[in-house]
Each structure stands twice: as structure tokens, then as C-alpha cells.
Specification:
The protein is an all-alpha fold. The protein has a domain at 1-68. It contains 18 helices and four strands. The longest helix is centred in the last third of the chain and has 34 residues, at 360-393.
Length: 474
Amino acid sequence: MRRAFLLLMFWGSMPVILIDPFLGIVYYTLNSIIRPEQLLWGDASAVGRIFLAVQGLSFLSWIINKGKLTPEYTPLPFQIKLLWFVAFTMTIVSFHAALFPDWSWQWTSGFWKMTILCFIMVKAFNTAKKLELYYALTLLWYVLLAIWGIQQKLGGNVRMEGLGGTQLPDVNSLASVYILYFPLTYYSVFSKKKWIKLYIAIPSFVIFVVFILFGGSRGAFLGLALCLAYIFVRSKGLQKIKMVFTFIILGALLVGTLSQLAPEGFFDEYTARLATMLGQKNETTGETKREASASGRTAMWKGAIYIYRNHPEYWLMGVGMNSYRLMYMRHIDELAGYLDSEELTLVLFGGHGGKDIHNTFLSVLLGGGMFVFVPWVFLILYAWRQACIIPKKYPRFVDGVDIHNYARALEIGIVGYCLCVAFLTMEFNDIFYWHLTMVGVITNLGKAKLKREELGQEEEEWGEEPRRSFAYSS
């Protein structure tokens, strides 16, 4: 009965998407945060049909309503063309170079589906108010998921396993997504909308940090520290003082929350886990001994780089997308001669291989070779650079929404996330590519506002600072 009710709820609400493709994007995003399979007892087939139906209806809604969307808001951002190109290179690798084409194509087809959704996104966000509402709802939904995760941890699910569904199966990968969105919680504090500031921004900042710390991910801790440092460095003049006072207030709320929620001994255990990143030095031999998880990552990176360096046939097109894990036994003799016995044991994952590289950049390089890796990295750098220059080129306010703050948040989130996935294999995480796409959406909003001002169709908004002010002032 419960399953039937949930399926009716998911399918029955879909027709509203035909009103506006924006509703489809919101629907798809919220379902991607709190995954349907968690409510349907892991029924992957039913979940897959739900996502495909939402995507199809969103595309149909765009066709039906595209005449209502202001054309000047929605030129095709260059990163969408880059996404198409990356998907095309993956397709070539999967069909002509992959040693395991079925496995490679499985992941490549998922990338194509994600690319189509990103195309719909740039067409659906035709106003700044939609942008603001979208991220307010997204942060609220992530807050609900984090509260659920904290409750799970306090209830005995110490590592909060399964919280992210099949897309983000462990707390490390889920925490990296929280790092991606964390800067949005900070910059939303400066929203002109009181309801966003008081009921979304401040609670989400505190709850995000609690969730990241409770997850125990060392990569997420580094990502959080990098985001905070980046926010401080990017702030100019009086904004640094404003930031310090904001962090004092939010920090006090955070300490108060942690003191009430943290189980006994949590801080000692957490600091001990962070200390494992540095390793333990043997006073007699001078050798630094690292914890198994950290040592395993180092061994996997070392082995992967060795195989790539010594096999020119993999340089251009790799071994197939996300297929390197299947290659261990093919080159076991070479790895055995290069790695020491302890490293080889960690790489072989119980003697049969199959463990991820735990480095997204190496995974793309080994999987698709330079043919995929170069445009993939360029896509990330292009979107990051685009976010950096938005405050320098475009008006700050569009329809009362501060697009500069959203650009800064996406810029910093991209950097923090990239640090996290240097320790995880997450090249096909849809949510990251949505972030890259939304930078193009914000650019379009800025271009449209600038164009209207130049044509004299609207005056600069009251209270707006001169366009040539500090790039990162608030």
C-alpha cells in the first residue's frame, strides 16, 4: 500500500511540469536530493522510469512554453556545447576504444541524459526570481536530508550509510555535494529577502556544517576549510569585517548546536580521525605510517599513474569510461613488480581488483584518455572562470536578486568540490554539472539586464552599486 501511494504521488504530480519546464527542473532536483529509491525500498527500475519521465516531460514543457520564455534570457551557454562535446568524446571512446564497451556505454549514456537535462535548465531559468527560488528550495531540501542524516547517526547509523541513495552511496560522496552547496548557505545570508536569510540561509549554514563534521569525511573537512578560506580571500575591504562578524554569529550558533547534538567523545574521535591524514611517524626508522584508507588511496593513484605512463595505447582514449577498476588483473604482474606487497594488497581489494581509483581526475584520465580528459577539465575551468568574472562584467541586481553573490557561491563551491573529489571517484555526479550549467544561467541573466539598460528599457535598480566597483564587494 505504501509503495502504491508513493508511486501515485510521484507520477500523479508530474502533469504540472507541462505548465513550465522550471517546475520539471525543481521536481527533478528535489527527487535527486532525497532519492525515491529510499522510499521505494531500493526499486531501481521504478526510480529510473520516474527520472526519465520527468526529463521527458520537462523537455516537452519547454517545447510547449518556449514562446513564453524571453529569448534574450536564454542563449545557449558555451558550457552546454562543451558538455555535448565531452559526451561525444565519451561516445567515441565507448564504441571504438573501450576494452569493456558495455560497461563504458552504461556510464556514457547516463552522461548524455544529464547533458539533455542541463540543456533544459538553461532554457527554463528565464528570470532571476526563479534562480533565487530554485536555490532556496534546494537548500531547504538538503537541510531536511541533513537532519535525517544526523538523526540516523544519533540512532546508530554512525556512517550514515545509504542516505544519498544509489547516486551517492556513502557519506564521503554525499558530504562532497554538501561542500558544493555550502558557499550558497553563506552568501544567502546577505539576501534581500528576509525569509531566505532567516529561515533558509542561517539554519542551512549551521546544519550543513554539523552534517559535514558528523559525516567524518576528511576530504569534506578539507573542502570546508578551503571554502571558508576562499570566501575570506575573495572578500574586499569592509566585506572582510562583515564576514568576520557573520562567522562569529553563525559560529556561536554552530557551537551551541554541536554541544547539544554531539555524542560523548565525538570531538576526540573526530580530531583523531583528522590526524590520520598526516600519518604516524616511527621514531626509530623515521618512516611515516598512514592509516589504511589513506594508504589505499595513495597506492591506487600510484598504480594507476604507472599503468597509464607505461601504456601508450591508453594515452589517447583510455580504457573506457569508469572501466579502470576492471583492468587490475590484466596488469597484475606489472603492478606486482612496481608496488610493494602492502600497496598491492590494498590495490587488489581482497585479491580480485575492482576498487575505484578514489580520484575523479585520474578516473577520467584513465577511462577516456586525453581525448576526454582535456575537454572535461576545460569545461570545469571555463565555468569556474566564468563565475569569477560575472561580478566584473554584469550588473549586481537583476529583478532585485543579487546575482553576484550566486556567482561567487558557485565559483567557490566548484573549487571546494574539486578538492573533495580528488579523493573520490565521482565523474558522473549529475549535481556537479548542474552547478557548471547554472553559471551560464547567471551569465545570461546579467547579459539580459545589461542589454535592457543599454536599450533604455529599464533604469538601474535602486541601491545598485556602480558596475566597476570591487569585483567581490557586497
